[in-house]
Design brief:
single chain; alpha/beta; 5-stranded mixed β-sheet; 5 helices; 7 strands; 36% helix; globular
């Protein structure tokens, strides 16, 4: 039996479904969670610079670059973790084809981190945020595409 895997993810959670097109069988293979991507920036950034004096205005402004970098780093970490899981599944012959469903930004991070041989198995890339959708909603939205 040749199964396909379908990844439905965002930058903090992912579900991997195994799907057999012949019999319509759909099973949850794995759930991955990366709560750091949902953590408040004040908790992520440990080296806060606080407020810095802005030249010429006499006012103070909060430092933002560390906050943006911290969230971006967590998203990249999770994309790598998900990509490693997909590679491991392929290497164990758990699937032959792969579909990716994620918001456009995270879909780009996934593509960037996928091994070349995994990229060649892609049958679907959908830039949608369905990560919080129920399994019934996912089937309704995606079965016609796969």
């Amino acid at each position: 039996m040749t199964r396909s895997w379908l990844l439905v993810a965002d930058s903090s959670r992912a579900r991997i479904y195994s799907y057999d097109k012949k019999d319509g069988d759909w099973d949850l293979e794995a759930e991955l969670d990366h709560p750091e991507s949902r953590t408040r920036t004040s908790e992520l950034v440990t080296d806060q610079q606080g407020r810095g004096r802005q030249g010429g205005t006499g006012g103070h402004a909060p430092a933002k670059s560390n906050e943006v970098d911290a969230h971006a780093n967590e998203e990249v970490k999770f994309a790598r973790e998900v990509s490693e899981r997909l590679t491991g599944g392929f290497d164990k012959h758990s699937y032959a084809k792969l579909g990716l469903v994620a918001p456009p930004h995270f879909l780009g991070l996934l593509r960037k981190n996928l091994a070349d041989h995994i990229g060649r198995t892609l049958f679907l890339e959908l830039g949608k945020d369905y990560a919080t959708a129920s399994e019934a909603e996912l089937k309704d939205r995606l079965l016609a595409r796969i």
